[in-house]
Design goal:
With 328 residues, the protein is of the alpha/beta class. The protein is 41% helix and 17% strand. The radius of gyration is 19 Å and the shape is globular.
Length: 328
């Protein structure tokens, strides 16, 4: 089975962490079934905050943070190099806040003058299971038009908005994906989008010319993994169907066949913590979802710790079971 997972942030890396246990290869037997013969991650490159933002401004490179997270997720957890890539400097003039993996990618990009090659070489160093591609090699930024007509430029401002987003754009709009990305989508059996920030992790990939068109043409099963919680700025009061509508509007048409939804209740204590941040569980409106031509798939996928997040292994298993059912 060939899988392409599209997104960014912590949501994509969490999914990859579960999928990697299904990977099969010459030197590796899949620990879980069904098996994946090829796993490709397509990662957004619009981040402007933290270590990634600083490196982007100072060295004029694409933000490495989300890609580094995906590398760590696809690497062997016990390896020292994996821990090293995730190491974040706590102090030191100019170093505080940077992760070693981000600095490594920045240095390799400077040496090779090729961000995609830097990602490839870094992946080899970590011996990751799978492939990782930035959604585009262009220096892209986000721009959002809000419901009140105002325009916000940059991911950092967009994530803080309290006014609903009407339309998201990527600048420059004529950016293109890597040919390898389009080839992976064309040959995929399963394409996943999410989980993750709707407007700053998932949709930006669909604004790269050629990606939504190739997804639409692909014969793969296309699945959106719905977020567990709304986000204070981007998706306040959004239902699951609202997320799907936003995806279709920005992709230029319907892409999604199934939407995976968590049915395990969020604990009351966790609800209170999220409510203090103006976030709430995403409402599962099954009737509206089906009216959009999307089939809901409900399952217990919650991994409740300090934050509400998907259980990586259970989510990966449910997604692969869906793809296997379609193939049979």
């Amino acid at each position: 089975m060939k899988i392409v997972s599209i997104g960014g942030g912590t949501g994509l890396s969490a999914l990859l962490r579960g999928l990697k246990f299904h990977l099969a290869g010459p030197a590796r037997r899949a620990q879980l079934k069904p098996a994946i013969s090829r796993l490709t991650a397509v990662v957004t490159v619009t981040d402007e905050g933290g270590s990634s933002g600083r490196l982007r401004r100072e060295f004029q490179i694409l933000p490495p943070g989300d890609i580094r997270n995906c590398m760590v997720a696809l690497a062997e957890d016990e390896k020292l190099f994996t821990r090293l890539f995730n190491y974040r400097f706590a102090n030191g003039r100019g170093l505080a806040g940077h992760s070693f993996g981000n600095l490594f990618l920045a240095a390799l990009t400077d040496l090779t003058h090729d961000f995609a090659k830097a990602v490839r070489v870094s992946s080899e160093v970590l011996a990751i299971h799978g492939e990782i591609y930035p959604s585009t090699l262009s220096d892209v930024r986000l721009k959002a038009r809000l419901q009140d007509g105002r325009i916000l430029a940059g991911e950092s401002l967009i994530t803080k908005t309290r006014v609903p987003i009407r339309r998201l754009q990527i600048v420059p709009s004529r950016c293109r994906p890597l040919p390898e990305t389009l080839a992976a989508i064309e040959n995929a059996d399963l394409i996943t989008l999410g989980p993750g920030s709707l407007y700053t992790s998932v949709i930006p990939n669909l604004l790269v010319r050629g990606i939504p068109e190739q997804i639409a043409r692909s014969k793969a099963l296309k699945v959106y993994v719905a977020n567990l919680m709304t986000q204070p700025g981007e998706t306040r009061h959004y239902t699951a169907a609202d997320h799907l509508r936003a995806l279709s509007e920005h992709a230029g048409g319907k892409l999604i066949d199934r939407v995976v939804l968590n049915t395990q209740p969020i604990s009351s204590a966790m609800r209170k913590r999220y409510l203090a941040q103006h976030a709430e569980p995403v409402v599962i409106d099954l009737h509206e979802i089906r009216a959009l031509g999307v089939e809901p798939v409900c399952a217990d996928l919650l991994d409740q710790h300090r934050v509400a997040r998907h259980d990586s292994l259970r989510l990966a298993q449910r997604l692969l079971d869906l793809a296997a059912e379609m193939r049979s």
